[in-house]
Amino acid sequence: MSELRTLGEFIVEKQHDFPHASGELSSLLASIRLAAKIVNREINKAGLVDITGSTGVDNVQGEEQQKLDAFANEKFKAALEARDQVCGVCSEEEDEAIVFSKELNRNAKYVVLMDPLDGSSNIDVNVSVGTIFTIYRRVSPVGSPPTQEDFLQPGNKQVAAGYVVYGSSTMLVYTTGNGVNGFTYDPSIGTFCLSHENMTIPKDGKIYSINEGNYIRFPQGVKKYIKYCQENVPEDNRPYTSRYIGSLVADFHRNLLKGGVYLYPSTQSHPQGKLRLLYECNPMAFLIEQAGGQATDGKTRILDLKPTELHQRVPLFIGSTNMMNTVHEFLEKYPDSDY
Ligand code: P6P
């Protein structure tokens, strides 16, 4: 049996990959680990206590805020503020970026962007949900409050990114730019343990993840790709299969392990798609590229997009390289204008 390596040990061990690391990023990652444990505990008893259902408040996205959304948002913000490594946070649950006012935080050099609980509408039906986070070095002067520019950096400037998937088991998967590693939570010892070292997405796969209920509103190229998957039996005679949970982190995690593509295109009703660039598409794009896959908006590499607004949306195509090449062939052959 291989020796038990905990997330904490791994973070410190990998800290030495960064010769100038002073332990601040390690401390920041440890605060995310703590918040993930707290949120995991609440999700695992969601059916038993009055914490599911809606707060009756809509978030900035106009989506009904679930109680666990608000709980997760507060716990991650508190954990990040407490460790003095972060000067501000952008959250899906907050209209504006949160500036931490303590002096220690003002002197911090990182900002964090997050979706504290993605897919939360699935909680009441016991479907996996997730937290998505990304970390940037601030560009504004240390000692001053963070500015919009700190949060509107392109994805290729990310220092670290990851997600927590609260599923049949709870896992934390992250990258600091040196590959992707997955840690499974062992509740009996309250510890995330290394279970998936150096994760890579298969170059090919058979799984396509898309909400086909939007089919008539998709661009022509997306429609053609869906038909290709349904009608084309590859040489290995293993047909494509449609898998869509309605929870980005869960769909992404399965595709990362088995190979596949996740597509959330623009539609006639949502010309920019639904997913948010800063705290959903960018972190997932960083992870998939570190795992050997690709992520675009249908034309441009997600990590090269220049953000303009905190909550802006972009179309997302992400997954196995060979499958992404086929997707792009259809998108190029049938330009966006053909719905
Ligand atoms: P639809 C959840 O709201 C989310 O942001 C992702 O987690 C998920 O993949 C997608 O939206 C589901 O959207 O329109 O298919 O219900």
UniProtKB/TrEMBL annotation:
Can you tell me which family this protein belongs to?
Belongs to the FBPase class 1 family.
Q: Which reaction does it catalyse?
A: beta-D-fructose 1,6-bisphosphate + H2O = beta-D-fructose 6-phosphate + phosphate
Q: In which pathway does it act?
A: Carbohydrate biosynthesis; Calvin cycle
Q: Which residues bind Mg(2+) 2?
A: D115, D118, E280
Domain (Fructose-1-6-bisphosphatase class I N-terminal) spans 6-197
List the lineage, top down: Bacteria, Pseudomonadati, Pseudomonadota, Gammaproteobacteria, Vibrionales
Q: Which terms under GO biological process does the entry name? A: fructose 1,6-bisphosphate metabolic process; fructose 6-phosphate metabolic process; fructose metabolic process; gluconeogenesis; sucrose biosynthetic process
Instruction: Give the keywords, sorted.
Output: Carbohydrate metabolism, Cytoplasm, Hydrolase, Magnesium, Metal-binding
Under Gene3D superfamilies, the record lists: 3.40.190.80, Fructose-1,6-Bisphosphatase, subunit A, domain 1 (3.30.540.10)
Q: What is the protein's species of origin?
A: Vibrio eleionomae
Q: Which GO terms describe its cellular component?
A: cytosol
Q: What's the protein name?
A: Fructose-1,6-bisphosphatase class 1
